[in-house]
Write a structure and sequence with these properties.
Strand content: 35-45%
Distance between the termini: 55 Å
Helix content: 10-25%
CATH topology: Lipocalin
Number of domains: 1
CATH superfamily: Surface-adhesin protein E
CATH architecture: Beta Barrel
Largest sheet: 7 strands, antiparallel
Number of strands: 7
Shape: globular
Order of helices and strands: HEEEEEEEH
Oligomer: single chain
Number of helices: 2
CATH class: Mainly Beta
């Protein structure tokens, strides 16, 4: 019985790891910065927050790959966007080495006010991706 339980548990863990790895690798390019950096959005991984399906608030995970930065390979950030107000804020961010290990991770103080979306920047690309204004 214990052996069966271990086998079932191991099988479930393998499926979860494989499915999360496949899902985590589904990134779409949404913006090229003038300095050579690239913004990616995690495909189909955003959600509406509050007020049900009519909520103007969206959250999603994004990846920034900077141009040849010796300090980190990429940054992952969770953004919250208010589609009506055209504002956004980073809820969390983490810097990653080339092997994927976390170099630094930080959350954002909830009292920090959202910033306006700046035209022609990565923040505008995040806004358009989450709010569907293409």
């Amino acid at each position: 019985m214990k052996r069966l339980l271990k086998t079932v548990t191991l099988s479930v863990l393998v499926v979860l790891v494989l499915s999360s790895t496949a899902h985590a690798s589904e990134w779409v390019k949404i913006f090229y910065s003038g300095d050579g950096g690239v913004f990616y959005a995690q495909k189909n991984a955003f959600q509406k927050v509050g007020l049900g399906s009519a909520s103007p608030i969206r959250e999603g995970e994004f990846k920034l790959v900077p141009p040849k930065n010796p300090d980190f390979a990429y940054m992952l950030a969770l953004y919250r966007v208010d589609c009506r107000q055209r504002t956004l804020m980073a809820l969390s961010a983490s810097l990653h080495a080339r092997d994927g290990s976390v170099i630094e991770s930080d959350g954002v103080d909830e009292n920090t006010p959202p910033a306006p979306v700046e035209p022609g920047t990565g923040s505008e690309a995040v806004y358009h991706y989450l709010c569907g204004h293409y």
